[in-house]
Every structure is written in C-alpha cells, then in structure tokens.
Design a protein that fits this description.
By secondary structure, the chain is α+β, with helices and mostly antiparallel strands. Helices cover 19% and strands 43% of the residues. The termini are far apart.
C-alpha cells in the first residue's frame, strides 16, 4: 500500500519550519532544522569540549577473521580545533592528537613502555583532522579555513526524502551530509569512499548524540571495511588537563624500565 498523503497543515508546518530554520544568512534552510533536531542553538554554541568514551570494532575483509580489531575508544574534541583520540587494544595503544596546526600519532606497547614511537603528521593529514574536528564541534555552522557550504538539492536515502548539503573543507575533504527534509535528522554522511550512518541516542544536557556510528569504506579491491563505534558515555564541557594535547616526552619513555612480566605458576 502507498503511504497516506500528508495533510495540508503538515505540509505548511514543514515549509514554515524550513523557513524559520534559516537563521544564518546564506546557509541552506535545512541546516537550521538539523541543528534544532540536535538541540537548542544556545546549548550547541555553548559547547567547548566533547568527550566520547566507547568501543571500536573493525572488520577488515583483507585480513583473517582473527585480525578483527576490538578496542576501547576515548575521544576528546576541544574548541577551537583540538582533538585527542586514544584507541587501545590488548597489545598496543595509538594516540592521535591535533593541536591547532600540529598533529601526531603516538604508538606504544601496552607491555613495554620503552617500545614507543611518535610520527608527526603531514600538512595534508592535519587539514583532514582539522576538518573532522570542526565537523564534530560546530554542528554544521561557521565553516572555517575558507570552506564552502553548498546545497546540492533533494535526493532519497534509505527511502527518506533528504536534502544533500556539502561541507567543502578544500584539501581537508568534503563531507556530503544527507538530512531528512521533514525533521532535520542526519540520515547519512559520505566522505570520499566512506559512508557513515548513525543510530540510537544518548541524551546529554538536552542534546541528541548517536549511540552508535557505523562506517563502511570501499577498498581498492571492492570489498568493504566496516568500523562500528558504540558510545557508552558522552560528557560536555568537562575540565581538561593542561597537558591533554601535549606531545609525549620521548626521552623519558626511552629511559623507562621494561614492564615486569606477570608471574608464572
């Protein structure tokens, strides 16, 4: 059976919502709806830090099944453009940090503190991290670094009538966002070969955050790399340690004694 037609009052209400939602000059009207779906403007704009804690499961079709990644995830975003992501598996911990225009990966063994290395990221990688951090902190409004927001019109995703809006960060990449035209809900995000969908809900201070995020990336062989992040906690505006985004002291790490192995019986 076909779906029942909307009443003229519903259609008028949706049109009015679209018009009222355009609160920033020149931005697509659906952005106002998308922000309203997340929560009040005043609360969104007042966010200075977001701290996500959860689990990461990654299935790589090019690796054997026992190579599937199971890890804990700790992710902090801080205005204006700072990010710290810590992914910990049984054997290793990888910390990726963005501090404005500096960024690095820090890899360490969980059993031997002397086995650690730092990799300073390239300008291209930094631009990608800056774009990702902006997308996570500013809730679709106020694109930085000369970026452009473009309304690409209507399309259908997962049987939902959507408005596609591209957030073009230049060399930082393009985030194609597909918003439900009736509610402003984010239905899907596309970033290059990666498609991202959100599900579930965690409510914090009256704001909507996803419970889970599933990312599917097409590999060169045509297979799909699937990463699932499930959040257990989201905290807003918590105080951060002064050294939260500081580079590690590699000299101290090299001098650290090796971890004592557990006793055998």
């Amino acid at each position: 059976m076909g779906s029942m037609p909307k009443s003229p009052f519903t259609a008028l209400a949706c049109a009015a919502a679209l018009l009222a939602a355009s609160t920033a000059a020149g931005e697509p009207a659906v952005i106002g709806m998308a922000r309203a779906f997340l929560g009040p403007d005043s609360t969104l704009d007042g966010i200075q830090t977001i701290h996500f804690v959860g689990m990461l499961d990654r299935v790589d079709p090019n690796q054997p099944k026992d190579a599937t990644v199971h890890a804990t995830l700790d992710l902090v975003f801080s205005k204006p453009l700072r990010q710290r992501l810590v992914i910990r598996t049984d054997k290793t911990t990888v910390t990726t940090v963005l501090d404005g225009y500096d960024a690095w990966d820090f890899m360490e063994s969980n059993t031997d503190p002397t086995r650690a290395q730092i990799k300073w990221l390239s300008a291209t990688d930094i631009k990608v991290l800056r774009a990702n951090t902006w997308e996570s902190l500013y809730f679709y409004r106020g694109l930085q670094d000369g970026g452009v927001v473009e309304d690409k019109g209507t399309t259908t995703i997962d049987s939902v009538a959507c408005e596609r809006v591209d957030f073009n960060h230049g060399s930082g990449g393009v985030y194609e966002r597909f918003f439900d035209r009736d509610t402003g809900r984010l239905v899907m995000t596309v970033r290059g070969p990666e498609s991202i969908r959100e599900s579930g809900e965690i409510r914090v201070d009256g704001l909507h955050f996803p419970k889970a995020i599933v990312s599917v990336t097409k590999t060169a062989s045509g297979k799909e790399l699937v990463s699932t992040v499930t959040f257990t906690r989201v905290t807003l505006n918590e105080p951060l340690d002064a050294g939260a985004f500081a580079a590690p002291d590699m000299t101290r790490l090299r001098k650290a004694p090796a971890a004592t192995p557990p006793p055998t019986h």
